[in-house]
Sequence to fold (204 residues):
Amino acid sequence: MSHELDLYDWRRRVADLYRLPSLDAFRAGRDALFKTHPQSPIPPDERESFSGLRYFAADNAHRVRAHLEPPAAAGVEAELEIDTGGEDGVVRYRRAGRLRFTIPGGPAELTLFRMLGYGGGLFLPFRDATSGSETYGGGRYLVDSVKMTLGGALTVTPGSDEVWLDFNYAYNPSCAYDARWACPLAPAENRLPLPVRAGELAYS
Fold:
């Protein structure tokens, strides 16, 4: 199969994971995909011994209601550029707005981005106080709709600025597994001072 068809199949299968009926099923399906698929970010010479990703225990307290403020109301500029450090170069984003919510530990804010010139998908990266110790130092993603990582991680009600964020679905970018990948990471405005002990742990 060509690289392009493999990539198409990978994204389709990733989207299917978010339709599974439970978080446990999602995690088991993701492990199977990472072990067997040609587009897996796990290095090929590690896949035979790969026994699964590590996660925090599921915690419903990390599924939270958030309010999205538009960029002007949140006092932020509309556009941002993030360097991936790889062949993709600089990726341009438009800020869709500022998400305000409360997680265990206190109130928090994250910027929700819309990619420009890259399919226009929504993107929600973040770092938190566990980054570099319990979780990947570069931060994690909650949503990257171009890559089909969405579903239960971000639930919207059409016509409303209220959404649900489920940090149990937070996951590592591909560069956390293998240096051959280059990833846009969370900018300064998406670095939380609080620990988010939900979702995927650091890969080892």
